Amino acid sequence: MPTPDEVPTPTPRDAMPQPSRLGLRARLHAWWEGYELGKRRPAPAPRTPRAETKAEPSAPPAPPAPPKDFWGPERILVGQMIWGDGFTFPGGGEFAARLAQALEATKSSVVMDVGCGLGGGTRTIVERFGAKAHGYDLSPELARAGDGLSAKAGLDLRAPIAAFDLEAPDWPKQHFDAALLRSVLSVVPDKVEFVRRIGESLKRAGRLVLLDWAVAEDERQGPAFAAYIAGEARPTYLGTVGQLTYLVETAGFTVRTNEDYTDTFAPIVLDGWSRIESMVTAGMLKPAEGKALLNEAQLWGRRIAAMKAGELRVARIEAHKKT
């Protein structure tokens, strides 16, 4: 198999064009501002001149804005309303179970679920296959909330959730029988080293399933892709399905299946996306939750637009550790 080109490094964010407005954004913005789309915005009340007063002390500076990948309680709530209880990523339990089938987990298996979010998929692995599963996520907020959900479900020992450090993950060596890696590799610059660390944590012939963002095989990168890159919370480093396959093999795995999974994944995203408008119509959100919804709508709107343009793809790879 010929060696593919190096995985491309994305254009710096400050050189990217700003994303265009979403069709739904105007409706969300109108709801947020307190008027119905298509109706005239109410005129502001006339101001009454104020008598001169002594200068008052300036207000304390506003606290710094949270990082773009911060998961506060409002975002966690909105994520579950879109994707299902215990989930902040498309698909819910059925999709998680479908992905995990290739892990061939049994009651005696121990699975690592990297990029688990709130751990809905981690708990699904335990409930469907009887295995023990450890969930790991980059977000401390999601990991903390997810571990609480596992405890609430009585699965704190069989489905614990913890945060991990992308630069130095602290995973036990030769401990797991299988690994599910979701939407994490795309934010890792040194992908070979990261997958190698996954392999070190697996037992002999341990299985790996990878699901992540990729670029088209012709590496097209138009305006929709630029908007996607500019709007992501972390710097993103994408390759083609072929390039990802090669790096997984380089990291010590034998690849069994590699495919462009976009046509299967996109309808799952759109199904969750369709719930957003009904949330706004029902007026079921508080102001802070509405703001979180607007941000989530923009995020997934950019991803959907890039997928529709053929510039953003989804890769699925099944492999096992070389013996």
Q: Calculate the terminal CA-CA distance, rounded to whole Å.
A: 20 Å
In spatial order, strands of the major sheet run: 3-2-1-4-5-7-6
Name the CATH superfamily classification of the domain at 84-219 and 235-267 and 313-321: Vaccinia Virus protein VP39
Major sheet characteristics: 7 strands, mixed
Number of strands: 7
**CATH architecture call of the domain at 84-219 and 235-267 and 313-321:** 3-Layer(aba) Sandwich
Kindly identify the CATH topology of the domain at 84-219 and 235-267 and 313-321. Rossmann fold
Helix-residue proportion: 25-40%
Rg estimate, integer Å: 22 Å
Shape: globular
Label the structural class.
alpha/beta
Q: What value does the average pLDDT take? A: 85
Query: Strand percentage, roughly?
Result: 15-25%
Contiguous uncertain segments of 5+ residues: 6-23, 28-41
Describe it.
The protein contains ten helices and seven strands. It has a domain at 84-219 and 235-267 and 313-321: Vaccinia Virus protein VP39 (Rossmann fold), CATH 3.40.50. The model is unreliable at 6-23 and 28-41 (pLDDT under 50). It starts with 24 loop residues before the first helix and ends with a strand. With 323 residues, it is an alpha/beta fold. Helix 5 links the parallel strand 2 (132-137) and strand 3 (161-163).
